[in-house]
Write a structure and sequence with these properties.
The chain is α+β, with helices and mostly antiparallel strands. It contains eleven helices and eight strands. It starts with a helix and ends with a helix.
Length: 267
């Protein structure tokens, strides 16, 4: 026989989830707006103003919202900032990337790199040496200019184009090999191609006889946070090029999700 108490419990549980959903919708709208009045929040959420006022009062008691700088407005509370800092502290690119890098290394047997941007350089913060050959151009803790190499251009290409111009104005385009894109036109073309296809390709532009592919890693702010690359001797590497591209792009997307990146919201 159906238990009436159980029915009430399920109804109350469903109602509580619905209320939480409405409260979260308010917090999302305030986050989008920066600050908002109850009337504006009612308009954005489709909720009656009386419901919005009640929810805001509860959220204010919990320190999740607080009065804004303008009279009658609300902003996100400092408690959310503290909670957010705790979440963000988990988003360590090296910790998120290492297991994924190990999988790529196990499958391809090539050298795998993880880099972050520091000024006008890509700095290697993790690498796993290849089983066939050890690449020497980018050691752990070493760096490359952002225009040279797949792992570097995967960082530069997904920065705002204003940064491209800054780089061109303040950094010499050194030709490490005859294949390095060392002119303004060549680099811009390579960056636009990289951004359009979603990954970068290095074909002997850092070290003769060596090729690589790289992909960007994004974080919860939807900005490029790091880059992942795999490379090896050109002849063997390009024989498995499509597989390498697929693995690196999939891995970079997996790491990005671990860092809080939401591709749907970024689009």
């Amino acid at each position: 026989m159906y238990d009436a108490a159980m029915a009430r419990e399920q109804t109350n549980g469903t109602g509580s989830v619905a209320v939480l959903g409405k409260a979260m919708a308010l917090l999302d709208r305030i986050a989008d707006e920066g600050e908002a009045t109850p009337a504006r929040l009612a308009e954005l959420t489709g909720e009656p103003r009386s419901t919005v006022y009640r929810l805001l009062a509860s959220l204010q008691q919990l320190e999740l919202v607080e009065p804004g700088p303008r009279r009658g407005t609300f902003v996100l509370g400092l408690k959310l900032f503290r909670l957010g800092r705790s979440v963000v502290s988990r988003f360590d690119e090296r910790q998120a990337a290492l297991p994924v890098m190990e999988r790529i290394h196990d499958e391809l047997g090539e050298t795998t790199f993880l880099c972050v941007r520091r000024g006008y350089n890509a700095v290697c913060i993790e690498r796993i040496d290849g089983t066939r050959v050890t690449l020497l151009a980018l050691s752990l803790g070493g760096s490359l200019p952002l225009h040279a190499g797949a792992v570097s251009r995967a960082l530069l290409a997904f920065e705002p184009e204003e940064f491209w111009q800054d780089y061109l104005e303040h950094h010499e385009l050194e030709a490490l090999t005859p294949q390095t894109p060392a002119t303004r036109a060549a680099l811009i073309d390579e960056l636009r191609t990289t951004r359009a296809r979603g990954y970068s390709v290095s074909d002997e532009d850092v070290t003769p006889g060596v090729a690589a592919v790289g992909a960007p890693i994004f974080d919860h702010t939807h900005r490029v946070r790091a880059s992942l690359s795999v490379g090896g001797m050109r002849e063997h590497f390009f024989a498995n090029r499509e597989r390498a591209i697929a693995l690196v792009c999939h891995a970079a997307a997996e790491i990005s999700r671990a860092l809080g990146y939401d591709a749907a919201r970024a689009a």
